[in-house]
Write a structure and sequence with these properties.
two-stranded parallel ribbon, elongated, single chain, six-stranded parallel sheet, alpha/beta
């Protein structure tokens, strides 16, 4: 609070995060400027993109890339996927990332009977993220809270439509022209 009250300027990565700071720290009418995160220059390199497109299979592929932690809410993503696509082998979900939720999520996908359609990729380096973004058909983010969502701008840079939860940052990124926003913690809405 002392730092914010004595700051000459306050910047945040999303408008929702700025409103949260105003509420939490009683900043009232203080001016908060939103400066969005920047896109990694690798996403402008077309070589990995072309390679990814060449190895694209015929399945419609959703990509999700994030740390496998509870706040990213991959559990609801799996529920949503099962609601809409269970048993349709023409649809695939590829999950990049690692973390403490990996084993429970793998178990959940087996128990839901979608483990043949869901691929857990593990931790990805920058080039692997780019390849996944380029070879997917759509990107989905199921988080409970995001201050920004760099993966969203990465997906957009690769020309991918987005499905994201209303969880903070995505509200500044996702528009009617590039994707869909759905309520957080609502697997049925995410499935739809």
């Amino acid at each position: 609070r002392a730092v914010l009250n004595h700051a000459d300027a306050i910047t945040v990565v999303s408008t929702v995060f700025g409103e949260l700071l105003k509420t939490m720290f009683g900043l009232g009418s203080r001016c908060i400027t939103t400066i969005y995160n920047v896109l990694d220059g690798e996403f402008e390199n077309s070589e990995p993109a072309q390679e990814a497109l060449q190895r694209k299979n015929n399945a419609f592929t959703f990509a999700h890339i994030a740390n496998l932690i509870s706040i990213k809410n991959q559990s609801d993503l799996l529920k949503a996927f099962a609601i809409k696509f269970k048993g349709d082998n023409r649809i695939q979900l590829r999950i990049g990332g690692d973390g403490p939720m990996r084993r429970p999520l793998e178990r959940q996908s087996r128990e839901m009977g979608i483990d043949k359609q869901v691929v857990f990729l593990g931790r990805l380096d920058r080039e692997e993220v780019l390849r996944e973004m380029c070879s997917c058909d759509a990107f989905v983010l199921s988080s409970v809270v995001e201050t920004f969502g760099v993966v969203l701008i990465e997906a957009l840079a690769c020309g991918k439509p987005i499905v994201a939860t209303r969880c903070g940052g995505p509200e500044d990124i996702v528009t009617d022209d590039n994707g869909l926003l759905v309520p957080a913690k609502d697997p049925a809405a995410l499935a739809e």
